[in-house]
TrEMBL record:
Pfam families: FdhD-NarQ. Its main location: cytoplasm. GO terms for cellular component: cytoplasm. This is Sulfur carrier protein FdhD. Required for formate dehydrogenase (FDH) activity. Acts as a sulfur carrier protein that transfers sulfur from IscS to the molybdenum cofactor prior to its insertion into FDH. The lineage of its organism: Bacteria, Pseudomonadati, Bacteroidota, Cytophagia, Cytophagales. InterPro entries: Cytidine_deaminase-like, FdhD. The active site is at C107 (cysteine persulfide intermediate).
Amino acid sequence: MAIAAIKYTAGKPQETLESLAREEALQIKINCRAYTITMRTPGQDDKLALGLLFTEGIIHSREDILSVSQIPAPHGDHTLVVEVTIREEVVRGKNLFNRSIASSASCGVCGKTELCDLVSPQQIITTSKKLDICLIPELLQQMHARQSVFEHTGGSHAAALFSIEGKLLSVQEDIGRHNAVDKVIGELFLDNLLSQADILFVSGRVSYEIVAKCAQAGIPFLLAVSAPSSLAVEFCQKKGITLVGFCRENRATVYANEGNILQQANMLQTFNNQPHETSYF
Protein backbone atom coordinates (compact mmCIF):
# COMPACT_ATOMS: atom_id res chain seq x y z
CA MET A 1 0.00 0.00 0.00
CA ALA A 2 1.05 3.63 -0.40
CA ILE A 3 0.39 6.76 1.64
CA ALA A 4 1.10 10.44 1.26
CA ALA A 5 4.03 11.70 3.32
CA ILE A 6 6.45 14.60 3.63
CA LYS A 7 10.07 13.79 2.75
CA TYR A 8 12.91 16.04 3.93
CA THR A 9 16.06 16.08 1.83
CA ALA A 10 18.80 18.47 2.94
CA GLY A 11 16.17 20.11 5.15
CA LYS A 12 13.78 20.81 2.30
CA PRO A 13 10.25 19.33 2.58
CA GLN A 14 8.62 17.67 -0.41
CA GLU A 15 5.34 15.81 -0.74
CA THR A 16 5.82 12.18 -1.68
CA LEU A 17 3.95 8.90 -2.03
CA GLU A 18 5.53 6.19 0.12
CA SER A 19 5.03 2.44 -0.16
CA LEU A 20 4.60 0.57 3.13
CA ALA A 21 4.96 -3.07 4.06
CA ARG A 22 1.50 -4.17 5.15
CA GLU A 23 1.04 -5.28 8.73
CA GLU A 24 -2.16 -6.65 10.23
CA ALA A 25 -3.18 -8.75 13.18
CA LEU A 26 -4.04 -12.43 12.83
CA GLN A 27 -5.79 -14.32 15.58
CA ILE A 28 -5.50 -18.09 15.69
CA LYS A 29 -8.20 -20.10 17.43
CA ILE A 30 -8.11 -23.76 18.32
CA ASN A 31 -11.48 -25.48 18.66
CA CYS A 32 -13.29 -22.13 19.04
CA ARG A 33 -10.94 -20.86 21.77
CA ALA A 34 -8.47 -18.00 21.34
CA TYR A 35 -4.93 -19.34 21.23
CA THR A 36 -2.66 -16.50 20.10
CA ILE A 37 -2.28 -13.36 18.03
CA THR A 38 0.51 -12.67 15.59
CA MET A 39 1.32 -9.56 13.58
CA ARG A 40 2.07 -10.44 10.00
CA THR A 41 1.92 -9.45 6.35
CA PRO A 42 -1.45 -10.80 5.12
CA GLY A 43 -1.53 -13.77 2.79
CA GLN A 44 -1.26 -17.55 3.15
CA ASP A 45 -2.79 -17.20 6.61
CA ASP A 46 -3.99 -20.79 6.80
CA LYS A 47 -0.45 -21.99 6.14
CA LEU A 48 0.93 -19.58 8.72
CA ALA A 49 -1.50 -20.87 11.35
CA LEU A 50 -0.85 -24.52 10.64
CA GLY A 51 2.90 -24.01 10.45
CA LEU A 52 2.84 -22.33 13.87
CA LEU A 53 0.76 -25.12 15.42
CA PHE A 54 3.03 -27.74 13.90
CA THR A 55 6.29 -26.14 15.02
CA GLU A 56 4.83 -25.74 18.51
CA GLY A 57 4.11 -29.46 18.64
CA ILE A 58 0.35 -29.07 18.89
CA ILE A 59 -0.33 -30.96 15.67
CA HIS A 60 1.84 -33.63 14.13
CA SER A 61 0.09 -34.61 10.89
CA ARG A 62 -2.70 -33.50 8.60
CA GLU A 63 -4.88 -36.19 10.10
CA ASP A 64 -4.92 -34.21 13.35
CA ILE A 65 -6.86 -31.42 11.62
CA LEU A 66 -10.62 -31.59 11.06
CA SER A 67 -11.01 -28.19 9.41
CA VAL A 68 -9.40 -24.82 8.82
CA SER A 69 -11.46 -21.71 8.12
CA GLN A 70 -10.69 -18.03 7.70
CA ILE A 71 -13.29 -15.62 9.04
CA PRO A 72 -13.51 -11.86 9.55
CA ALA A 73 -12.75 -10.77 13.10
CA PRO A 74 -15.70 -9.55 15.18
CA HIS A 75 -14.05 -6.16 15.72
CA GLY A 76 -11.20 -4.13 14.32
CA ASP A 77 -10.30 -3.01 10.82
CA HIS A 78 -7.02 -4.90 10.50
CA THR A 79 -7.72 -8.37 11.74
CA LEU A 80 -8.51 -11.83 10.53
CA VAL A 81 -9.26 -15.00 12.45
CA VAL A 82 -8.07 -18.45 11.42
CA GLU A 83 -10.14 -21.13 13.13
CA VAL A 84 -8.45 -24.51 13.35
CA THR A 85 -10.50 -27.48 14.50
CA ILE A 86 -8.30 -30.26 15.85
CA ARG A 87 -9.30 -33.74 16.92
CA GLU A 88 -10.08 -33.76 20.63
CA GLU A 89 -7.78 -36.68 21.31
CA VAL A 90 -4.89 -34.66 19.88
CA VAL A 91 -5.35 -31.70 22.24
CA ARG A 92 -6.58 -33.64 25.24
CA GLY A 93 -4.23 -33.22 28.18
CA LYS A 94 -2.30 -30.36 26.57
CA ASN A 95 -2.21 -27.11 28.53
CA LEU A 96 -2.80 -24.91 25.49
CA PHE A 97 -4.79 -22.00 26.82
CA ASN A 98 -2.90 -20.98 29.94
CA ARG A 99 -0.11 -19.64 27.76
CA SER A 100 0.06 -17.57 24.64
CA ILE A 101 2.54 -17.49 21.82
CA ALA A 102 2.59 -14.00 20.45
CA SER A 103 4.78 -12.98 17.62
CA SER A 104 5.12 -10.42 14.92
CA ALA A 105 7.71 -9.74 12.41
CA SER A 106 9.65 -10.01 15.68
CA CYS A 107 7.52 -10.50 18.76
CA GLY A 108 5.91 -7.60 20.57
CA VAL A 109 2.31 -8.51 21.33
CA CYS A 110 3.33 -11.08 23.90
CA GLY A 111 0.55 -12.12 26.24
CA LYS A 112 -2.26 -11.15 23.89
CA THR A 113 -4.82 -13.75 22.84
CA GLU A 114 -7.91 -11.63 22.19
CA LEU A 115 -8.13 -9.09 19.40
CA CYS A 116 -9.57 -6.50 21.73
CA ASP A 117 -6.31 -6.66 23.70
CA LEU A 118 -4.61 -4.95 20.77
CA VAL A 119 -6.62 -1.75 21.18
CA SER A 120 -4.16 1.00 22.06
CA PRO A 121 -4.74 3.45 24.93
CA GLN A 122 -7.84 5.55 24.33
CA GLN A 123 -6.14 8.80 25.27
CA ILE A 124 -4.78 10.78 22.34
CA ILE A 125 -1.31 12.21 22.91
CA THR A 126 -1.27 15.97 22.57
CA THR A 127 1.75 18.25 22.67
CA SER A 128 2.54 21.89 22.06
CA LYS A 129 6.17 21.02 21.36
CA LYS A 130 7.68 21.06 17.90
CA LEU A 131 10.45 18.79 16.68
CA ASP A 132 13.28 20.62 14.92
CA ILE A 133 14.02 18.41 11.93
CA CYS A 134 17.61 19.66 12.00
CA LEU A 135 18.19 17.83 15.30
CA ILE A 136 17.80 14.40 13.72
CA PRO A 137 21.44 13.92 12.56
CA GLU A 138 22.65 14.88 16.03
CA LEU A 139 20.20 12.51 17.73
CA LEU A 140 21.24 9.72 15.40
CA GLN A 141 24.91 10.33 16.15
CA GLN A 142 24.30 10.31 19.90
CA MET A 143 22.48 6.99 19.72
CA HIS A 144 25.04 5.39 17.43
CA ALA A 145 27.97 6.51 19.56
CA ARG A 146 26.58 4.45 22.44
CA GLN A 147 25.84 1.28 20.48
CA SER A 148 28.84 -0.65 21.73
CA VAL A 149 27.20 -4.04 21.25
CA PHE A 150 26.29 -3.21 17.65
CA GLU A 151 29.80 -1.92 17.01
CA HIS A 152 31.28 -5.22 18.09
CA THR A 153 28.68 -7.64 16.77
CA GLY A 154 26.48 -5.90 14.22
CA GLY A 155 23.67 -7.93 15.77
CA SER A 156 21.79 -5.66 18.16
CA HIS A 157 19.02 -3.10 18.02
CA ALA A 158 19.06 0.20 19.88
CA ALA A 159 16.48 2.55 21.32
CA ALA A 160 17.04 6.01 22.76
CA LEU A 161 14.95 8.58 24.58
CA PHE A 162 15.52 12.32 24.22
CA SER A 163 13.98 15.56 25.38
CA ILE A 164 12.59 17.82 22.68
CA GLU A 165 15.76 19.92 22.91
CA GLY A 166 17.86 16.87 22.07
CA LYS A 167 19.10 15.97 25.56
CA LEU A 168 19.89 12.27 25.71
CA LEU A 169 18.04 10.54 28.54
CA SER A 170 18.73 6.88 27.88
CA VAL A 171 20.17 4.48 25.29
CA GLN A 172 19.78 0.72 25.47
CA GLU A 173 20.67 -2.18 23.17
CA ASP A 174 19.17 -5.62 22.82
CA ILE A 175 19.02 -8.41 20.27
CA GLY A 176 15.26 -7.74 20.16
CA ARG A 177 14.11 -4.29 19.08
CA HIS A 178 11.05 -4.45 21.33
CA ASN A 179 13.28 -5.35 24.25
CA ALA A 180 15.47 -2.31 23.61
CA VAL A 181 12.39 -0.08 23.74
CA ASP A 182 11.20 -1.73 26.94
CA LYS A 183 14.62 -1.15 28.51
CA VAL A 184 14.81 2.61 27.85
CA ILE A 185 11.24 3.14 28.99
CA GLY A 186 11.82 0.95 32.03
CA GLU A 187 14.97 2.85 32.99
CA LEU A 188 13.21 6.22 33.02
CA PHE A 189 10.17 4.69 34.71
CA LEU A 190 12.33 3.43 37.56
CA ASP A 191 14.02 6.84 37.86
CA ASN A 192 10.72 8.77 37.68
CA LEU A 193 12.01 10.61 34.59
CA LEU A 194 9.63 9.30 31.96
CA SER A 195 7.75 12.59 31.81
CA GLN A 196 10.92 14.22 30.44
CA ALA A 197 10.98 11.95 27.39
CA ASP A 198 9.62 13.58 24.23
CA ILE A 199 11.34 11.52 21.54
CA LEU A 200 11.73 7.77 21.11
CA PHE A 201 14.38 6.92 18.50
CA VAL A 202 14.76 3.32 17.30
CA SER A 203 17.50 1.89 15.12
CA GLY A 204 15.26 -0.27 12.97
CA ARG A 205 11.80 -0.27 11.49
CA VAL A 206 8.54 0.64 13.23
CA SER A 207 5.68 -1.83 13.58
CA TYR A 208 2.44 -1.61 15.53
CA GLU A 209 4.03 -2.91 18.72
CA ILE A 210 6.62 -0.14 18.85
CA VAL A 211 3.88 2.46 18.43
CA ALA A 212 1.85 0.83 21.20
CA LYS A 213 4.80 1.06 23.59
CA CYS A 214 5.39 4.67 22.61
CA ALA A 215 1.72 5.50 23.20
CA GLN A 216 1.65 3.70 26.54
CA ALA A 217 4.63 5.81 27.68
CA GLY A 218 2.97 9.02 26.44
CA ILE A 219 5.86 9.93 24.13
CA PRO A 220 4.71 12.27 21.33
CA PHE A 221 7.55 11.80 18.79
CA LEU A 222 8.68 8.49 17.31
CA LEU A 223 11.77 8.42 15.08
CA ALA A 224 13.21 5.46 13.22
CA VAL A 225 16.16 4.71 10.99
CA SER A 226 14.03 2.50 8.75
CA ALA A 227 10.47 2.31 7.46
CA PRO A 228 7.16 2.06 9.35
CA SER A 229 4.47 -0.48 8.57
CA SER A 230 0.99 0.51 7.40
CA LEU A 231 -0.53 -0.27 10.80
CA ALA A 232 2.16 1.75 12.58
CA VAL A 233 1.32 4.80 10.48
CA GLU A 234 -2.40 4.37 11.08
CA PHE A 235 -2.00 4.11 14.85
CA CYS A 236 0.31 7.11 14.99
CA GLN A 237 -2.22 9.14 13.04
CA LYS A 238 -5.00 8.14 15.42
CA LYS A 239 -2.99 8.60 18.61
CA GLY A 240 -1.36 11.93 17.78
CA ILE A 241 2.17 10.56 17.62
CA THR A 242 4.46 12.28 15.13
CA LEU A 243 6.13 9.50 13.15
CA VAL A 244 9.38 10.11 11.26
CA GLY A 245 11.04 7.30 9.34
CA PHE A 246 14.22 6.89 7.30
CA CYS A 247 16.07 9.22 9.65
CA ARG A 248 19.53 9.49 8.16
CA GLU A 249 22.33 12.05 7.96
CA ASN A 250 20.51 14.54 5.76
CA ARG A 251 17.01 13.24 5.19
CA ALA A 252 13.90 12.05 6.99
CA THR A 253 10.31 11.22 6.02
CA VAL A 254 7.36 12.35 8.14
CA TYR A 255 4.49 9.86 7.95
CA ALA A 256 2.05 11.12 10.58
CA ASN A 257 1.15 14.40 12.30
CA GLU A 258 3.58 16.54 10.32
CA GLY A 259 2.10 19.64 11.96
CA ASN A 260 4.39 19.00 14.92
CA ILE A 261 7.53 19.44 12.81
CA LEU A 262 9.32 22.77 13.19
CA GLN A 263 10.25 24.22 9.80
CA GLN A 264 12.95 26.84 9.85
CA ALA A 265 14.35 29.08 7.19
CA ASN A 266 17.89 27.88 7.88
CA MET A 267 17.13 24.16 7.50
CA LEU A 268 18.97 23.80 4.21
CA GLN A 269 22.14 25.39 5.55
CA THR A 270 22.00 23.37 8.76
CA PHE A 271 21.68 20.06 6.97
CA ASN A 272 24.37 20.90 4.44
CA ASN A 273 26.77 21.68 7.27
CA GLN A 274 26.30 18.26 8.89
CA PRO A 275 29.32 15.93 8.58
CA HIS A 276 28.73 13.02 6.22
CA GLU A 277 29.45 9.61 7.72
CA THR A 278 29.26 6.10 6.35
CA SER A 279 25.87 4.53 6.99
CA TYR A 280 26.03 2.03 9.81
CA PHE A 281 22.49 0.67 9.79
